[in-house]
Amino acid sequence: MKILLVAVFLGPLAVVSTLLSKSLDQDFVEYSADLVKKINSMNTTWKAGPNFAGETAESVLKRLGTPRLSLEKVPKLPVIERERADGDIPEEFDARVQWPNCTSIGRIYAQGNCQASWAFSAVGAMTDRYCITHGGQQFNFSVEDSVACSLSPFFSNNCFGGSTTIAWLYWLDTGLVSGGGYNSSSGCRPYAYPPCDHYEKGSHGSCSDPLPDEPFCNKTCRRGYPKSYENDKKKGLRIYRVGHHEADIQNEIMNHGPVSGDMDLYADFLLYRSGVYQDKGSAFIAAHSVKVLGWGVENGQKYWLCANSWNSEWGDKGFFKILRGTNECNLEFNLHAGQPY
Asked: What is the pTM of this model?
């Protein structure tokens, strides 16, 4: 039985938590060091390493971004199933290789000290799919616009969490402007929050600072951008949930591009370094959102290839592999996608 890390979200982020009977004031490294040894001593499919050096469990919690409350309360989108004969599906597939002109597919984002994984996963998939649909033409949808303007009914500040469904709905109904990374001059609304460390010897600086100010839905582009906010927007044509079967997901990605996914996040995932991740009975923390861009087989173990938003120093250069075909961490039951104009 998994030991729960209970996270109750009341208002913006009043967190009541217990991590294996340890206080949230406990240094996360002290807890994770034992877990790293445990994972690496097992005959399992992945390797762990010490991440989030010098942090408390509470500061780690503040960087996830897809609370279960939002997953349970938001509207359910229609399900699109795309199954076909298994013989038509290759053993391995990587969207970065399939669409090499769409460089956004291989981009690893940095959400910084903002609970915005829900926006990064959805907006990342939107950006990839726009490029695929338009034959390599890139339009980088703005994560900042999504975080600030696609307001969740459950959170007054979307740096305190949100839902991939809300992000997709806002894109469909209202549209998003273009954007880019922190401190960049890319697009109408670049991201407002700097990257920070998710790795034991990171180069960005600590994530333990207070959460940023509430994102403001400022419907103007940065100074010097040649278009107006309204003229820069692009909308989606339709959005949907991806079918739960392995072949549904494979055919969706293979034919239309990466998808966004919500997964249950356990404490050992934070320590991922390489291999095919599967939870080994660690504490449940919260939900988290990622982008799924392919699949393959490693040492006889089937996996999904995913991009995280904890910068390229975490995990396998920002990517990770997760067990495929068993709904590991509920990922296969919580995938969303859309079709751009």
From this structure: 0.89
